[in-house]
Amino acid sequence: MRNPPLSEPDDHMLAAMFSGRMPIEADKKGFVVIDRDGRYFHYILNHLRDGSVPLPTQQAELEALLVEAKYFLLADLQREVEAKLCECVLTTCAVPMVVSEEHDAKLVQLTGTGLPLVKLSCNRSMNRFSYTATATEAFLRHIELFDKLASKFHGRILYAKDVSGRNGRICTWSFFGKGRFITEVNCASIVYAPDRRQTKIEFPEARLYEENMNMLLYEPGRPDPAETLPRCIESPDPTKR
């Protein structure tokens, strides 16, 4: 079976160029000059030959390919790329902002059948005393770790930021699974200087990683650790029979 020429079908830019309907520019060797991004031209040719083509997965590459598809008037390829871009938007990692007690309760309730929840309450303005010299750096490290984990475990753990300022929480990680509170790590404490009290922000990195990894035990479809752990402890050792 012969490959279709570039003039078939005749409703795209290349067909107009090579059928004589549009003037073209050739160099001294007779090669036609097309001033476009060559990195994506193979997608254009493969689509014309096969009718479909495997698309790139990165959003930036898809956006660049969409520009080329529009230039060459390839409506089918344009629709395929736009659909793929919509999928990228739907899989974007979104972090809910908790602004009220009702919103908080709803997120916790969803963990009964959905993803486990890790919530960071980071409210620097709630402090009644001055901060220690290392507090600002510690705040930044908490935020950086939160963003890193939210991106890494997107789709397995739900991460949320509590910006409501309720309960005077300055820097606290809270963990929820199977519809209930599991544990929390409070990273703010009061220290006493000779002339004043100050708020110290700690960054217990190893503890935070451990608690976040433990939340994977509460993924949907897994048995509740609160029910399985006691059975494991009570199970007799078969080697001692």
UniProtKB/TrEMBL annotation:
Origin superkingdom: Eukaryota
Domain Potassium channel tetramerisation-type BTB: 11-77
Presence of the UniProt keyword Ion transport in the record: yes
GO biological process: monoatomic ion transmembrane transport; protein homooligomerization
Disordered: annotated segments: 222-241
SUPFAM superfamilies found in the cross-reference section: POZ domain
Matching InterPro entries: BACURD1-3, SKP1/BTB/POZ_sf, T1-type_BTB
Pfam families the record matches: BTB_2 (PF02214)
Keyword entries, A-Z: Ion channel, Ion transport, Transport
PANTHER family: BTB/POZ DOMAIN-CONTAINING ADAPTER FOR CUL3-MEDIATED RHOA DEGRADATION PROTEIN FAMILY MEMBER, RE57120P
Full protein name: Potassium channel tetramerisation domain containing 13
